Amino acid sequence: MTLLVDLGNSRLKWALAVDGKVGDLHAVDYRQAGFAAWLRRQWQTYATPECIGVAAVGAPAVLDDVLRVAQSLWPGVAIVKPLSTASSAGVVNAYRFPDKLGIDRWLALLAARRDYPGQWCIVDCGTAITLDLLSEDGRHQGGLIAPGVSLMKGVLAFGTEVLPLVERQADFGLGMTTEAAIDSGVLSAAIGLIEATLIRHPHYRLLMCGGDAELLQGLLTVEAVVDVKLVLKGLLICCEAGRR
């Protein structure tokens, strides 16, 4: 059994993998009070994993908490923290300095290469929205980064005097209230980013992951595949490679 951990910009996601299959995805906002104690209660029911794969894009203090919880529960457990490299598992990194590519984006590329043959535009819809193009022969073509849905709403509320921080509204379209207009405007910005990229690269199919993937998928005018475990699947590839 492998414990797969993805520490993003606002949430911790994890799953157990057995016999090469990634199980149910769990997610929590790590900014809540008492996060480390809460996580320990969740994990203490698990048997000792063969190893723990960890991907982290931010929050070093939270990462330290997560590792302390793991090592207190399973002293001496092997921990794998992969880095983005020039090439791996059939994927060639487009970055001039490969280690500067976010590890979550790199892992998504590795999993897409293995599980989804063809040309893909991979979109991770989290705190940030990232887009990466992967050619059929496994060459990363580069990518885009923009604020995610919640972050755009937060910036509007923080940067203006009168605009509120709004929750998801019932309907998508032209708003009859300020709240509805913000919600649909932010969603339209995210959708426009994705669809504009596909217009410029028409031979690429759309593969989505992240917390807002299913929400945005339902509003797009193009077909999309959603795989919320994509980053963890890429992390498992690295863990399995490390055990060979």
Polypeptide structure, described:
The protein has 244 residues and is α/β, with parallel strands linked by helices. The chain contains seven helices and 13 strands. The chain has helices at residues 35-43, 60-73, 103-115, 149-159, 178-200, 213-217, 230-243; strands at residues 2-7, 11-18, 21-22, 26-29, 51-56, 78-80, 87-88, 91-92, 120-125, 128-134, 140-147, 205-209, 224-226. The strands form three sheets. Strands 1, 2, 3, 4, 5 and 6 form a six-stranded mixed beta sheet that branches. It has a five-stranded mixed beta sheet with strand order 11-10-9-12-13, with helices on both faces. Helix 1 (35-43) runs parallel beside helix 2 (60-73). The mean pLDDT is 93. Keywords: ATP-binding, Coenzyme A biosynthesis, Cytoplasm, Kinase, Metal-binding, Nucleotide-binding, Potassium, Transferase.
